[in-house]
């Protein structure tokens, strides 16, 4: 039997990275997770360095030389961004390793429909709607990133929740989100909220589950969820 070689697939989202390692030809498969990364926010060099650490750890655990890596990466929608990340990864990986960088939305569409037609709504840290017709044509809506869009994604849910908390501090409508955020993250004052968001690099998407939990009984949280669901539905339409 030939010596085994290692093939890696990475799904790099804004919140986490999922890695699948397959040894060929003996068929051993392992899975692990690491921190997320968005290419537009982190840039190619920092993103490559973070991903290379995870890749090297997987290769060491598999005890097999690395043959190829396929990565679906958040924020990698433009060819020039994928090329920049590929070049940066080459500086971290052994010579001869095949590197294939795709948008994370593309690998999700492939996984969902196995090359066939279908429509896919992705609402993770960000959001995008993708479709592929029977003739192979693609269509997309959304995917504008956290500053221009991403309604229905965790970042926007978290951002709008913290805006509601700030609004209550200013005398606006009371919301259960204020106590939920205080209990979960210790943000009990305007000063703590400002410091966390603007100085400490607080990951706003962490707040999204609190919106989902509160929406059943809190009008403010329910309104946030409704706005974002409607925005996603418009993308589908």
Comma- or semicolon-separated keywords:
single chain, alpha/beta, 3 domains, five-stranded mixed beta sheet, three-stranded antiparallel beta sheet, 23% strand, globular
What would you note in describing this structure?
The radius of gyration is 20 Å and the shape is globular. 37% of the residues are buried. It starts with a strand and ends with a helix. Helices cover 44% and strands 23% of the residues. Helix 2 packs across helix 3, helix 5 crosses helix 8 and helix 5 packs antiparallel against helix 9. It has nine helices and eight strands. By secondary structure, it is an alpha/beta fold.
How does the SSE layout of this entry go?
Elements: E1 5-12, E2 16-24, E3 29-35, H1 39-42, H2 44-62, E4 66-73, H3 79-90, E5 98-103, H4 104-113, E6 118-123, E7 127-132, E8 138-142, H5 154-169, H6 176-185, H7 190-198, H8 208-214, H9 219-236
Parallel strand pairs: 1-4, 4-5
Antiparallel strand pairs: 1-2, 2-3, 6-7, 7-8
Helix pairs in contact: 2-3, 5-8, 5-9
Give the gist of this structure:
By secondary structure, the protein is an alpha/beta fold. The longest helix is centred in the first third of the chain and has 19 residues, at 44-62. 44% of the residues lie in helices and 23% in strands.
Spatial shape: globular
Number of distinct beta strands: 8
Main β-sheet, in a few words?
5 strands, mixed
* Cα separation of the termini: 53 Å
Q: Total number of helical segments?
A: 9
Number of domains: 3
The spatial strand order of the largest sheet comes to 3-2-1-4-5
Name of the top-level CATH class of the largest domain: Alpha Beta
The CATH superfamily of the largest domain is known as ATPase, nucleotide binding domain
Q: Helical residue percent?
A: 40-55%
Uncertain segments are none
Which structural class best describes the helix and strand composition? alpha/beta
**What's the CATH architecture of the largest domain?**
2-Layer Sandwich
* CATH topology name of the largest domain: Nucleotidyltransferase, domain 5
Strand residue content: 15-25%
